[in-house]
Each structure stands twice: as C-alpha cells, then as structure tokens.
Design brief:
This protein has eight helices and nine strands. By secondary structure, it is an alpha+beta fold. Strand 2 and strand 3 form a beta hairpin. The relative contact order is 0.20.
C-alpha cells in the first residue's frame, strides 16, 4: 500500500514521447486518491525536462496522435493566452492573472502586467518570474488556478555579430499545483509557450530548456481505460 504518490522525473527531446511515458508511468505507479469532484484519480509528483526537438514540437503544435483533446485545445484553447480572448465567461484565465494581476496599493488596487515587466527586465537574472495565485480570491474559490508560477532565465543574450548565436537562449520553468496529465498536459504547454514567445521573447530569444514541475499530476478515473491505450 502506497503512503504517498511516487515521484516521476524524465528528460525528453520528443514532446509526444514525454507525454506517452508520463501517462504510462502514472497509470502503472500512480497512487489512487479521492478528488474534490467525488471521483478518483491516479496521482504522481512530476518533473519533466524538455529540450531539443521537444521545444520545436511544442512551437509547431505537434501532438501525440492519441492525445484526446488536440483539436479543441489547438483551436480554442490557445486563444485564451492572447489579449483578444473574451475572459468574461471564466472565473479567471492564466493570461489575465499574468498580465492583470491585482495589487493592493495604499489607496487603490491596480493591475500589474507581470509579463511586460519580465520583458522589460529580461537579463541574466534569477528574479524573472510571474505568479497567478491571489490568496484573497483563490483560497475560497472552487476553481483556483492550477498553474502557479512561470520562471525565466536568460542563458545567453543575442549576439548580432555572430550568426550562430544571433538569438539569445533562455530556460523556462512552469510550476503547477495540480494538472490533468491525460487531457490537458500537452495543450497547456502549447498555450503557455505560445504566450511566452508572443509576450516576452519574440524573435530575439529561443527556449532551449523547459522544466515542467507538478505537485499533483493526475489521470482521472474516467480516463483510465482510454489512457491505457496510449
């Protein structure tokens, strides 16, 4: 009998293989835990490091053929990471939390664009991060954010005199409280990487290392049978 969810660590250069291997591990080794929704899930604590071709797969939106929500998420889902998306139908969106984070001032509450702040201060520093959690809202919410933090570090700045290093290099970390591995993991990364390039990196920088850390990565009981075919 397991006392706690197992730890999963993987380094992958293939985006689809990263998802496939994580799904298989979670199904086989994950701890069965009741959820807040009245069902069960198999849970792991995961750290997945992506590099090389995996980053290009994400940018080109190449998903595993058995990822269940690819059509929906590569269409409507990615729009949620843009300023044009109408967020009024949701309690929150990651884009709004990252670009309109509520900050309590001495007199009034104002909104902070954390992504713009990172872009303006992008340098070789360990201080470039943006958060989503708003305690006064999320501690009482039935649907608090799963993504908690984005951390970015510049590894090398652009060198316009050298063609090989004309683009700068960065590593990006995503820190999650909870994550649906089977139905959302791939599309989450596609949307977030799109937003990071669109709002921060542009054409000047390239992600060379992506670390995805999840406290509670899970596959819901309703998906166990379908996930077994991966």
């Amino acid at each position: 009998m397991r006392l706690f969810p197992p730890n999963y660590f993987a380094e992958e250069k293939d985006f689809s293989l990263a998802w496939q291997n994580a799904v298989r591990f979670c199904l086989k080794e994950g701890m069965i835990i009741p959820t807040e929704y009245g069902n069960k899930s198999k849970d792991i604590c995961s750290t997945i490091v992506l590099s090389g071709s995996a980053i290009h797969h994400i940018k080109r939106r190449i998903l595993h053929p058995k990822f269940p929500t690819s059509v929906k998420h590569l269409g409507e889902y990615v729009k949620q990471f843009t300023p044009e998306f109408d967020a009024s139908v949701f309690e929150y969106t990651y884009y709004d939390r990252l670009t309109k984070y509520p900050v309590a001032g001495n007199i009034v509450t104002y909104e902070m664009n954390q992504l713009e702040n990172i872009k303006e201060n992008l340098r070789n520093s360990r201080r470039n991060q943006a958060i989503t959690w708003v305690p006064q809202i999320d501690l009482e919410s039935d649907e608090p954010p799963c993504l908690q933090r984005i951390w970015i570090r510049v590894l090398q700045k652009p060198d316009m005199q050298n063609y090989i290093y004309s683009k700068g290099m960065v590593e990006v970390h995503f820190d999650w409280r909870s994550r649906d591995l089977f139905s959302a993991w791939m599309s989450n990364l596609v949307g977030l990487v799109f937003m990071v390039y669109n709002e921060i990196l542009g054409d000047d920088y390239e992600i060379v290392k992506l670390v995805d850390y999840v406290d509670a990565m899970h596959i819901y009981e309703t998906d166990w049978q379908q996930a077994g075919n991966v």
